[in-house]
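dumping the sequnces here before i forget
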Amino acid sequence: MNDLAELDEIAELVRVDAVTRRFPLDHSYVSALDNVNLRVAPGEFLAIAGPSGSGKSTLLNLIGCIDKPTSGHILIDGVDTSTLNPARMTALRREKIGFVFQTFNLIPVFTAAENVEFPLLVQGFSSGERRQRVAAALESVGLSARANHRPDLLSGGERQRVAVARAIVHRPALVLADEPTANLDTRNATQLIDLMHDLNRRFGLTFIFSTHDQRLLEHTDRIVRLTDGQVVADTLTAESIIPQNLSQGASHGQVLASRL
Amino acid sequence: MGKFLLLAFRNVFRNRRRTIMTLIMVGGGVAGLLLVGGFFARMFWGLRESTINDGLGHIQIFTAEHFNREEKHVLDTGIDNWRQVAATASTGGHVRGVAPRIEFYGMLSNGVKSGVFMGSAVDPVAESSLGFSPRLAAGRDLDSKPSGETEALIGIGVARSMNVKPGDGLTLLAVTSDGALNGIDVQIVGLVNTGFKEVDDRYLRITLPSAQRLLQSDRVTNLVVGLDKTENTDMVAAELAPRLRGLPQQLVLKKWIDLAAYYKQVRSLFSTIFVFLGVIVFFMVLMSSVNTLLMTMFERTREIGTMLAMGTPRSWIMALFVVEATLLGIMGAIVGVVGGNLLGFLLNHAGLHLPPPPGTTVPMAFRVLFVPSLMIGSSILVVVSLALAAIFPAIRASRLQIAEALAHV
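..and the predicted 3d for all of it:
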């Protein structure tokens, strides 16, 4: 097992500083996260594990800039998200983050290719660029042949792979996956895990996902365990695959662009 | 933009049953407006043409003093050299003919009983050449031969009141241009049913020579100009006015619309009713669409959350809903225009008749006109209505909290 202190030496993609998130409940508050600290380096393959209600999804939502902490700070690629107005927050999500959801959340009236194309459409890419990137993304998840199928004609595993392609097509700095294997059978779950891990290794993509799926945890390099909103363990389980050049401060986007 | 429109278009058909119901509702509103509006338009057209062809004509020529006169003697302000004026008017394009008239009033008597009449003296040949023929209930029209100079048509109300019939005689009394009381005997040759009881109770029509003999004057009150088409009225009036200025007597032109007070009242009343119907349809479409679109928004909450999470601007989400509703409105308008015209065609060929309108005695044939401006107007109305209906759901959708939307079940 590696020493966690090594992570302090490399560049940070995500930094969570003393973050607390409380939700109102009747006339009081319930604490979903309590003084959480976390640092994630570019290229990590990190799992946030814990039982239901431990705060996994809340932490992912906060890192994904779709929720705001009650107190504390979250920095994405060096940008303190608490200082951003809604428009800049939206722009940060659009450009730096990709999402994979437990229930796939594909747009049902779009084909697989159109779903993958959507983030590029939002970012204003030209049609030629969109076509090229969509083809590459679908190929990277092994779904080129299913590009023109709508989600209702795809299996659960295929839908989640489309969701992964959609999450990586715009070459984000970070991919967040909330319980990505929860709705998949063992075979599809294993394929998805392998796929994400492969993308992580090949392109140096940073993956943070919440899960309590043991199959997924077995393939994870680092596991952050949450209980009652607090980090109770942060362990490295395998040899770190953090690309050397990233650890030396190279732009994460540049590396991805050159590889994807 | 193309993909965005494609998404909106496909979303419209996501729930087909609901879309079909909405299209039926929107289309029904448009079709209803087209049928009612088309029926009103046909009614206006029918009333306009019957008003003109019942003797009003397209243009009438009066002396300038006619409308400022104190009604002392009928022909004091009449047209002197009316044959020259008629000849001048006849030479213009689109003019089918010119008919001289004397509008006068007086008393009539059957020897036992007297009553008041509102008379009109005409040249039967000129009138028939313009297609002006009285609505005879019995007997025949006036004869243009010299023997017809003592003939008269009376309204069915006059006949009932005076207890006379075709073939019977009446005495007419009127004040001459000199202020003397004069009288002539006429023979009733026909009874007229104008469809308006108030008119039928006072109606009298005699030949121009009879009236000139009764009123002791060679003048006429007015000249009625008949055109080939009503649509040419403005053009002919504009062309004729300067030519009349060269004549000795100062004359004025009045277009049919200036003289058709009843037509204008009917048109104004039914136009108001139609606007009211339009407002009802507008709000009907608006309110029911708000409900439908809100339902759509709730069903797609998680999808909207996903799009927002991916960095889609909130304005895009708003625009998506408004575009979807607008597309729905356009399709509904197409359904309505096609359905309304089809229904109108079927109704026009069904031979339906409506009860006589208020103030008339003749049943009215049910006809619907196909009015392009009405189709465009109704379509715009429902499209705008649907676009407005989308604003509230669109705002709600765009303001969804992403984390909550993603957790929506």
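DSSP finds nine helices and ten strands in chain A.
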